[in-house]
Amino acid sequence: MNIKEIQDLIKFVAKSGVNEVEIMQKDFKIIIRSEEKSNADKQIYVQAAAPVAAAPAPAALPTPAPAAPAEAAPAESDDSKYITIPSPMIGTFYRSAGPDKEPFIGVGDTIAVGDTVCIIEAMKLFNEIEAEITGKIVKVLVDDATPVEYDQPLFLVDPS
Hints:
about 160 residues, CATH 2.40.50.100, 3 helices
């Protein structure tokens, strides 16, 4: 599914009165929710996630790292045991659902697969980003309300 098809689907949900659409294909899953706050004010939420089968791939990436520490700096070995949660899109990173709300997660919190870790706003759409791994948050790498790039590390997670 390309970005044009996703945009068309979002427009369809906004106009049709449908409250939720969920599409799952072999390489991704997308959920589009519509919520009316008043007669004229409607918000659309898009939630995208990689399939469960793709989740082990990030865990496999740290395995080549132990071979490199012989020539790498010792400081790298401290972070090599952690897994990063990357940004799945370009947008603005928010740690909470609103300025007066508590952050979804903080350093020391334990997360599970499917827990909302942050929101990324892209094109006036607020996308809830869910954890694809279970573990403990070690570090938040991005400040609240700052722009993020695709695949930019957002959090460090200790999977143990």
